[in-house]
Specification:
This protein is an alpha/beta fold and 401 residues long. Helices cover 42% and strands 15% of the residues. The chain has a seven-stranded parallel sheet, with helices on both faces. It starts with a strand and ends in a 10-residue tail after the last helix.
Length: 401
């Protein structure tokens, strides 16, 4: 097949969710198919990574979108009925480049990444298009409303309502993909989207694997992620201030490590004798090897969390809120435990810290789940089947427009 990937961000280095997913899916599909990439160039420093992408994509097309332009778009977007998220990525140049590419090439299918890019493809119904979402975006914003205050809460309420209306555009696509059954159910029942399937996030098992985790370790709790991402910032502040003190009373030797790039001021201020803020870590697998547990106390967001999948792949037990757990479709103890509330979350962490056998049992089960269902090789096969389905709709039972 000849496939065009239209991504909202330059997909390298693969250190964040949206870049990571596109990179690994394309890396696998390129072994059998001809791939082309069309994306924005927001930072000229990204040009140094073109050699890595040229190993995957036959052609790479970049549309400049400088930061000042996005900020201007967002400011004007405040007065639009559309979400500011959509305005941020608005570009007449992107529309023109798409027109040019469709005249030059005959693509079998288009892989459109993120709701932000739907504006470029919802009306181009003569070509098969899959819209691949990291999550149900309005659900993500709705969950953040209750923990915000002041102007942030006001903006979140407005953006949530705009996103709910805008998500009707999903019905213009041949197929919509989300990474969890929870997100699919929300889009179908709450938003009324007809054709939604699940494409889970994956794990690079070449990077996140170990022959055997050292389960004698019980002195380090780990959180990983981009530390300028609002749900992550809220999660580590919430954990450090409310949950961690309870754990410290029972396990005074334990430390909490926050490992991730671009920590904002609110995160850096958490650093203490017992709380370590690392900043960027090139090889996160080494951090997982040191951890007794990974904690994922996210209070808002949607979809599944890479930090949970990576930890499970490394055999490290996870304690998570429902954000990051519900979409995994696993049982409690099958690599992770879901706990709600400060006391329950803290007590589950304490239970695991005090039981090497429970850490071993939980971590081993998690590794098995990842190898069976979340390897990027398997996930890319699922995407391949969806792309073939939309390009030859008569061969499947799904009804496409």
């Amino acid at each position: 097949m000849k496939i065009l990937f239209n991504a909202n961000r330059f997909p390298y280095p693969p250190f964040r969710g949206d870049k990571l997913k596109i990179y690994h899916l394309a890396k696998q599909l390129a072994k059998k198919h001809e791939l082309h990439l069309l994306t924005f160039l927001q930072d000229k420093e990204d040009l140094q990574y073109l050699p890595q992408l040229k190993e995957i994509f036959t052609e790479i097309h970049l549309v400049p979108l400088p930061q000042w332009r996005s900020l201007a778009n967002s400011t004007l977007g405040i007065f639009s009925p559309d979400p500011v998220q959509i305005a941020f990525f608005k570009s007449a140049a992107m529309h023109r480049r798409i027109d040019e590419l469709l005249q030059q090439h005959r693509f079998d299918a288009i892989h459109v990444q993120h709701l932000r890019m739907a504006q470029y493809w919802n009306k181009r119904k003569s070509i098969p298009r899959i819209l691949d979402l990291p999550d149900a975006f309005s659900l993500y914003w709705h969950r953040g409303i209750d923990i915000k205050s002041g102007p942030e809460k006001w903006f979140a309420q407005i953006e949530y309502k705009r996103l709910q209306r805008y998500e009707q555009v999903l019905n213009d696509f041949n197929l919509v993909l989300v990474c969890s059954a929870e997100d699919r159910e929300y889009l179908q029942e709450k938003i009324g989207i007809q054709r939604v399937e699940v494409l889970p996030n994956g794990v690079d098992l070449e990077t996140f694997s170990t022959p055997r985790h050292d389960y004698t370790q019980n002195q380090l709790l780990l959180f990983t992620g981009n530390m300028n991402y609002a749900p992550n910032v809220d999660a580590v502040r919430y954990f450090t201030k409310e949950i961690f003190p309870i754990i410290k009373e029972r396990c005074p030797q334990v430390k909490f490590m926050i490992a991730g790039q671009n920590p904002v001021k609110k995160v850096k201020e958490l650093a203490s004798e017992s709380v370590i803020v690392t900043g960027f870590v090139k090889d996160l697998s080494k951090m997982y090897q040191q951890a007794a547990l990974v904690v994922a106390p996210l209070r808002f967001g949607a979809g599944t969390q890479n930090k949970v999948l990576e930890a499970m792949a490394m055999g490290v037990p996870v304690v998570s809120h429902h954000i990051g757990f519900s979409g995994l479709n696993i049982a409690a103890g099958q690599g992770a435990f879901q706990e709600k509330g400060v006391e329950a979350f803290a007590q589950r962490c304490i239970q695991l810290l005090e039981s090497q056998d429970l850490r071993l049992k939980t971590g081993t089960a998690g590794r098995e789940v990842i190898q069976e269902r979340f390897d990027w090789v398997e996930v890319s096969r699922q995407l391949e089947s969806y792309l073939k389905a939309v390009s030859t709709p008569e061969s499947i039972k799904l009804s496409y427009p």
